[in-house]
């Protein structure tokens, strides 16, 4: 009964629940139906009672385009307008391409023999037309059959031979009977020795001793007897001094530059046994007239010789006898050695007996000296010689001295020493005995002394200063012959052999020295002018490899490795080269095996530079000027042409300001058309004086660090000459004027000018900041760089030329301000720019503000600023204002804004790409820089970003400043990537790829880079947890207070470290480089987002920077930064070679390639019997190698293996 009741109760309960559910469902369905009905009724009533609509018009087809065009334009105008951007432009073809057409002898109006002779005679200087025609009258033609000798050892060495057609082989007869070919002489080339020509001129002809020449094919030879110069000098005696000086200059520069600086030879270049005076022997000059009045030199040539020697003498010859009261002042040396006593014939000594002995010695020594230099008038020595007595160990003259004298040893010995390459030790070259001269080469050339003269025992000698020697030479120029002969006698026979092999090349602007893919058969040394090396890649694009100026060595790698030319080298302007054939280099290696060690050292340095090169090459550096980032192109500029945009430009004041700044770096000369007319005459610019003007201008380049050419305001002959002489052209405009292209620039665009072009905009000190620079740049075809210069008021003052020169004469009495913009331009032009690089590190970057304050107080200028992340922000602020106080205020305002939590909360977004939208951060950056463009900054600036679209590093030197600063600070996960307004690429924080871009600054031309690193340091003392890791175990270790703490990276930290791997590798490379001064302040205790501690962090940076820079100042680091790099190379006697690398050379075959000596071809001995040639082969003798250099090769190979 009970069970039935339970069943009925459950059934009733179930039915009730079902009914409730059904009722609820019904209610919902009814509500939905009611809502639907209501909506239908409302829609019906709305359509029933609504107002009639506007009729839709149908477009005619001709109106449809106009309607939609207006609609689109309304949308375009509603978008915010971006500022104008720099249009990327490629350099014109003339900059990277050599002329396709070579010089054709057949198309010339002159006979080939005249052209060939003119080409080879120019090695002795620029002969004018009458002199050259006089020489041509002595030319003789010689026909040679194949194998026939042109000359053999024992024949008279008295001619210059020029090949008109065919080919000659120049050989050296060795002691073992072999005759290796050291030079192939092709049509247009010559066989001669400058030293042999000098022997003929000085009256000491000698036969060939070891050199011979034979015809490799049937050949026609032009012979110019050296005796022809005798008749020329009799008719035109004013050219004698100039020719002798040119021979001496080229002997010193080329022979010693190539053989000493590059090949490391020292004692091998000099003859240890000199020429001693024999009392009964009197030197007789056979090629000069003995009448003194015939030998007076014309003013122009002597003045040029005096300028070459850096001597200033009066235009009117002074009396041979100088008043005795002035002797003491005029004849002593500038740097008097210690413990040197002077005695002259002027009297006045307290000890009459000692004076009498000194006068006796002096008179006897002067008599002997007259016999050596063959001076006709003994009175010319009166008052111009000084008797010196030095004690043992005294230094008479030091290597590198500019003010030198000729010493004539009377008693004792003067030892001559020279510093060895890459070492501090010295080696003895030769000993000067009584009756011998020393120092005459430096006096004749005006070049610095190449050795040190030291007295090993008490010594007495006569001294003639450079000034007094040129005074004597003005009256009797033939003394230069005999003094030059004493120099030649000091040269070893080896130098004579190499002198035969060396060739001189005059290359016109645009002509190729050699082309890519040609056979490598010689090495070149730049004597004057400028060369550019360009490589053509497989896709047909051309890229600049480097530029080379005076003293640089090119083509050596391909020559040593026997590979085809890797690049094309052409002349930027008219240039002069010395050519060292491959055969001559092999001959040198055969005679002096130690040369191989020096060559391996040079090539090893180049290879190590490539191994330790900047990371930018590996990461495909993409910048608009990347083609010019192949090293410092301004490191060896010799000439700079200044060209105005308009007549309103104060050109004279600008060039004077620039000259003042350049003189703080090295000797600088400013040339204008008025200066040329005053110094060389009103007709100096006429075409008939082309050679003389070119010679004089080339001489000025030799004497000065930089020559400034100021053009006229119109295209005059002088303006054309300035453009032709330029290594670099500066286009000067007024920043306050509207952008414009000047008339001279338009004419410049039409000509194939290969020099670099730089734009300089002048601004007033109290004027507005620079704007609109991009318009100036877009108007021009291609500019290598631009600079803004803030000028003092005197630059814009309206003064007449005499008043202006008088003003700057007073300005030149004061040293130039190293912080001025003109000093910055001077350092940029000479390759001495100082760069400041600021790394990324969040709030730790606030310390850079303090370090930059200490940098300014230490007097260290900044010529280039670059940065990454927070460093890009700090650097941009300073580059805009150049004021530390203003920079600190703006940086602090931004840092305090970064501490606002409210703005960060409002900027939060759904974290698909990043946690923040980036709008608030964009606003904070744009408030700092407004609409400023990078091109408008006063100091050249760049920053680094990571292009995640192209997986490459980006270097930004133009465009919207705030956008690229923001992109450089875009940390992954926090901010979204910024879309580049130029190409839409996604840009992220530059710290991921290069957090301290010192290498980029170096590639932009900085000599010294001051790098400030504020990045965080990673923990390296991590826990070794074995082969596997349990997250639960790690969680227990972290939650349990009693457990031992472990250091294990989480996923975010691992990803961060992976992202910075490339950056860490690059940082270590920068820290170990020799050009970088690395600074890291003690800011590790501050976290990345602690911007609220701005003042504290900045003070830490200031105190650290103050300490560091104080140490730099006391230790001479600051002075070294400001010293010209060319002076450093000279004082260290180390020449940094810009050699073109050969891409196929490897480490393993380097020693073998360099030390390889080509087998000597069997010599052909020719016996002429009844006009029939009989040939006899000479057995080749195998050479034995010295074990010393081979041991060095093995050591070098081991070092190379260690590097890998």
TrEMBL record:
<dbReference type="InterPro" id="IPR056556">
    <property type="entry name" value="NTE1_P-loop_dom"/>
</dbReference>
<dbReference type="GO" id="GO:0016042">
    <property type="term" value="P:lipid catabolic process"/>
</dbReference>
<feature type="domain" description="Cyclic nucleotide-binding">
    <location>
        <begin position="123"/>
        <end position="250"/>
    </location>
</feature>
<comment type="similarity">
    <text>Belongs to the NTE family.</text>
</comment>
<protein>
    <recommendedName>
        <fullName>lysophospholipase</fullName>
        <ecNumber>3.1.1.5</ecNumber>
    </recommendedName>
</protein>
<feature type="short sequence motif" description="GXGXXG">
    <location>
        <begin position="840"/>
        <end position="845"/>
    </location>
</feature>
<feature type="domain" description="Cyclic nucleotide-binding">
    <location>
        <begin position="479"/>
        <end position="606"/>
    </location>
</feature>
<feature type="active site" description="Proton acceptor">
    <location>
        <position position="989"/>
    </location>
</feature>
<dbReference type="InterPro" id="IPR002641">
    <property type="entry name" value="PNPLA_dom"/>
</dbReference>
<keyword id="KW-0677">Repeat</keyword>
<dbReference type="InterPro" id="IPR018490">
    <property type="entry name" value="cNMP-bd_dom_sf"/>
</dbReference>
<dbReference type="GO" id="GO:0004622">
    <property type="term" value="F:phosphatidylcholine lysophospholipase activity"/>
</dbReference>
<dbReference type="InterPro" id="IPR000595">
    <property type="entry name" value="cNMP-bd_dom"/>
</dbReference>
<dbReference type="InterPro" id="IPR016035">
    <property type="entry name" value="Acyl_Trfase/lysoPLipase"/>
</dbReference>
<dbReference type="Pfam" id="PF01734">
    <property type="entry name" value="Patatin"/>
</dbReference>
<dbReference type="Pfam" id="PF24179">
    <property type="entry name" value="NTE_Ploop"/>
</dbReference>
<dbReference type="InterPro" id="IPR050301">
    <property type="entry name" value="NTE"/>
</dbReference>
<keyword id="KW-0812">Transmembrane</keyword>
<keyword id="KW-0597">Phosphoprotein</keyword>
<feature type="short sequence motif" description="GXSXG">
    <location>
        <begin position="867"/>
        <end position="871"/>
    </location>
</feature>
<keyword id="KW-0443">Lipid metabolism</keyword>
<feature type="domain" description="PNPLA">
    <location>
        <begin position="836"/>
        <end position="1002"/>
    </location>
</feature>
<keyword id="KW-0256">Endoplasmic reticulum</keyword>
<feature type="active site" description="Nucleophile">
    <location>
        <position position="869"/>
    </location>
</feature>
<dbReference type="Pfam" id="PF00027">
    <property type="entry name" value="cNMP_binding"/>
</dbReference>
<feature type="domain" description="Cyclic nucleotide-binding">
    <location>
        <begin position="390"/>
        <end position="473"/>
    </location>
</feature>
<keyword id="KW-1133">Transmembrane helix</keyword>
<keyword id="KW-0378">Hydrolase</keyword>
<dbReference type="GO" id="GO:0005789">
    <property type="term" value="C:endoplasmic reticulum membrane"/>
</dbReference>
<keyword id="KW-0442">Lipid degradation</keyword>
<feature type="short sequence motif" description="DGA/G">
    <location>
        <begin position="989"/>
        <end position="991"/>
    </location>
</feature>
<dbReference type="InterPro" id="IPR014710">
    <property type="entry name" value="RmlC-like_jellyroll"/>
</dbReference>
<feature type="transmembrane region" description="Helical">
    <location>
        <begin position="21"/>
        <end position="46"/>
    </location>
</feature>
<keyword id="KW-0472">Membrane</keyword>
